[in-house]
Amino acid sequence: MALKTLRKLRAATTTTTPKPPRAADGDVLLETVSLTKTYAGADGELPVLAGIDLQIRAGEVVAPLGKSGSGKSTLLRCLAGLIPASSGTISYRDQPLTGANPGSAMVFQTFALLPWLTVQQNVELGLEAQGVPADRRAEAAVQAIDLIGLDGFESAYPKELSGGMRQRVGFARALVVEPDVLMMDEPFSALDVLTAENLRGELMELWESGQFPTRAIVLVTHNIEEAVLMADRIVVLGSRPGTIKATFEVGLERPRDRNAPAFEDLIDRVYRVMTGRAKETRIPGRPDGIELDKRTTANTPLPVASVDGLSGLAEMVAHRDGRCDLADLADDLGLEIDDVLPLVDALELLGFAKISDDDLLLTERGTAYAGADVQDSKTIFSEAALGTPLVKLITTSLRQNAEGTLRAGFFRDLLAHHYTSEQVTQQLETATDWGRYAELYAYDADPQEYRLDNGGVTPAPQS
Ligand code: ADP
Ligand code: MG
User: What is the largest CA-CA distance in the chain?
Assistant: First the structure.
């Protein structure tokens, strides 16, 4: 694990000397042409990115934005040269990448610090990989530590630090190599709201002040507000395969005011594309964009939404006569619109709601579900959940098994062909929640085993 991290870091932060001349604003630093990335799966190649044409220019912050699983991390790893393209080209300063991008450094969501090294040593790591002599390393690290507001913490170990301070180390370690392009993979998403907001502000101030030589930032995020707050250009990725659905030039003065009408207007426009409300952007990969009989566990992941959450949303919409504007609803609830998206996807996938014009509209089935008593709502939910590939897969597999039990590992292995292990866990957690509530199957955490729920599916004992 630690070694893997180290290798990842080395690859991500390795740069060659000498440094190229400073690029003028607008110069293309990074470019992908028809970039495609596929992963090998059980039933053939699974396309993750398809036909991505993207340019990153000096002077700009670009935010690839998309839901979980849309291929953002894959795109970033391709840009950093950590994984090769399946087809198409990726160039840095007009040179096709053949390995780690010499001009980039990466900030990871999970900080990826080495626990046995101090802050100072963690920051020096990237320079060590470049063969920079010890005294210069120390000097550069002190500067980076200073720049990012970590002075006083040089000799602390990661476990002594708060999440915000840890991610500061992540930033310092990337900035110390003076990358031409700073790449960040959801760097604020593991932090609490206030800490994240504070760090975003500090980073943007630093960027505006030009105190470090980095010429472009690629910020991967699933958070619409974060993208509008920080980016000059937002590139919205659709899912399965990831394609560029839309590009937005932000063009707002910094620091940006979240309450300014132009800010809110842009959020709304991006939001529409993200939820597929903009007509031209309906894409395969959204639950309602795929015909029922064509849905598979690979092309139709379960949205990460609990039964409680989606029932709550259905009831709220029912209260508003079965129709409401989602942005308004999120606002009323004091939620970020991104928080509501998985619930909306879940309602659509279950056939409980549709997006119509600008509103979320309950279907007949959704209205019945929202108004039903507990038993009826379970029956309705159970029917709907059986229309989702993973719940169906678990249920039918269990029904075909003589004992009516199967280890979770069985489904894990099946899903591992299409999802990262973190996503597999999320998929199974959601399927467990849904299946339990629907009384289709039960799950025992101890032997990690699914078994058919006795609620009428197993044959009654003969006597
Ligand atoms: P994001 O960062 O937008 O959440 P990722 O780039 O991590 O998305 O993953 C995109 C999709 O690619 C995932 O849904 C998963 O199915 C697939 N994927 C990612 N990494 C692998 C891998 N190493 N092997 C197989 N499939 C993968
Ligand atoms: Mg990711």
Answer: 86
